Amino acid sequence: MPSEPSKELVVLDNPRPGRNYEIRCETPELTCLCPVTGQPDFATVVITYVPDAQIVELKSLKSYLWSFRNEGVHHEGITNRILDDLVSALAPSLMTVTTEWLVRGGISTTVSATHPD
Questions:
Q1: How far apart are CA 99 and CA 7, in angstroms?
Q2: Which distant-in-sequence residues (6+ apart) come within 8 Å of 74 by Cβ?
Q3: Can you tell me the distance from the alpha carbon of 7 to that of 62, in angstroms, rounded to the nearest whole number?
Q4: Mean pLDDT computed over 35-60
Q5: For 50-67, what is each residue's pLDDT tens digit?
Q6: Mind telling me the catalytic residues?
Q7: How buried is residue 56: exposed, middle or buried, by Cβ count under 10 Å (0-12/13-18/19+)?
Q8: Could you tell me the CA-to-CA distances from 46 to 2, 18, 38, 98 in Å, in that order?
Q9: Which 8-state DSSP code applies to residue 105?
Q10: What is the pTM of this model?
């Protein structure tokens, strides 16, 4: 059965609660639409976090990121929204979301948002 985009983030129990360790998830497959022109934007997203009681299930993270494909959103907005949604789902000790956007109009953009701020 083919996968579908979804805003649902599935969480799993942290297999090593009480230990501080970092998880890094990275994909070059984040896409959305420019809210001004409607043209596609492409980014690499890097999510690093120190979990508390929960970790994110990776297939659900992939479907979640895929759900932005047809959404018109600015680079700063999507980066902060991803951080807010993951923090809400996981309540991590520390998390940073960085998006590195491909060049558009001669300008490349990198946006980073961190919790706690």
A1: 18
A2: 35
A3: 10
A4: 97
A5: 999 999 999 999 999 999
A6: 34, 41
A7: buried
A8: 25, 24, 24, 5
A9: T
A10: 0.95
Torsion sign (Cα): 82, 86, 91, 92: negative
Measured over the CA atoms of residue 71, residue 45, residue 100 and residue 79, the dihedral's sign is positive
The pair of three-digit structure tokens given for residue 22, joined into one six-digit string = 């970092």
Neighbours of 47 (CB within 10 A): 21
Strand, coil or helix: 7: coil
23: number of CA atoms within 13 Å, CB side? 20
Cβ-in-10-Å burial (0-12, 13-18, 19+) of 22 comes to: exposed
Model pLDDT for residues 20-34, shown as the tens digit of each residue: 999 999 999 999 999
Tokens of 112: 């980073």
Q: DSSP letter string over 10-53? A: PEEE-SSTTS---EEEEEEEEEEE-TTT--EEEEEEEEEEE-SS
Closest C-alpha to 55, from 25, 97, 79, 29: 25
